[in-house]
Design goal:
It is built from four helices and eight strands. With 249 residues, it is α+β, with helices and mostly antiparallel strands. The strands form two sheets. The chain has a four-stranded antiparallel sheet with strand order 1-8-3-4. It has a four-stranded antiparallel sheet with strand order 2-7-6-5, with no helix packed on it. It has a domain of 118 residues: Beta Barrel (Elongation Factor Tu (Ef-tu), domain 3).
Length: 249
Amino acid sequence: MKKTKLLFTAFAFCCLSFGACKKSTTPGPQGPKGDVGATGAAGTNGTNGTDGTNGTNGKDGKDGATGATGATGATGATGAIGPQGPTGATGATGATGATGATGATGPQGPKGDTGATGANGQDGKDGNANVQSFVLTNKSVTLTGFTKLNVPAITQDVVDKGLVLVYFRVTGQTTNYYALPYTEIDRSLSVSSYGVGYVDIKANFTAQGGIDFRVVVIPGTSLGSLAVNHPGLNLRSFSQVASTFGLRN
């Protein structure tokens, strides 16, 4: 019975619907929007899933371009000087060099004038009456070896007991003579030695001619007797020697 009632109800609903459709197919106006329903309660969080396995490492990237060189830093302060090291051992003395060849002797100058006879000594004890002076003009000197002046008036007695004084000047000059030894800046002249008939002159330079030598020969006297008989006589001044012994200047 209940089943029959349900079928009848369904049938009646279909008839009513059908009849209504036949009457009008135009839809009616839209009804007002209903209220938003209340938000439902939040669900519970699900359980966390398990971590996945790590992926393989990627390949290394290419090196980047080299950066520009940075500016040079300031120079640091100089360090302190270290202590001086010990002095090294003295090296062996080198071998002595060979002696250079002796230079050729220059040509002999013309014979000088014979000097005037000297004046008598003050007391006749120093033999000054025999003082002689010789001029040897335009002579050469050499750095190596000696210049030999020939002076026949130099006897063995003069060598043993007398004096030989030597002066010079530039050839052609009328200035006074300069006594030997003589030094000026980088040049020097001196008497190396004298003996019977000669005087050897030593120079530290070479000159081909151009020097006049004046040789004064004083026999039979000494510096001591000259000092006594001619007090104040300056033997380095030819003008004084010439005046004292009456020599021609």
